[in-house]
Amino acid sequence: MKHLTPTETVNQIGRLNLSGNIIPANWWHHIKMPSGKPDSTAIILLSEIIYWYRPSEIRDESTGELKGWRKAFSE
Which of 7, 30, 42, 66 has the most CB atoms in a 10 Å sphere around its CB? Predict the structure, then answer.
């Protein structure tokens, strides 16, 4: 396997703190309507549910250091 050194742009993108809904590409191939087309409503709804059940980071406000994880919402 060839090892490629990432460019500075790739490194900068890797440092982005991506948050919010993330939809895995394979959902578009597996979650389908009876017609065989992707069920975009179901996919987006599932991504919302998954987003709300993901843990949230707890960070030190002065240093930004990751201190732990918590539930995103109370029950």
Answer: 42
Which residue has 């742009």 as its token pair?
Answer: 9
Q: SS3 for 8? A: helix
pLDDT at position 6, please? 75
Amino acid symbol at 22? I
What the block records as the tokens of 74 is 């109370």
SS3 content of the chain, % helix, strand, coil (to 5): 35, 15, 50
Distance from C-alpha of 70 to C-alpha of 74, rounded to nearest angstrom:
10
| Whole-prediction pTM | 0.62
Q: Domain residues of the chain, as ranges?
A: 20-70
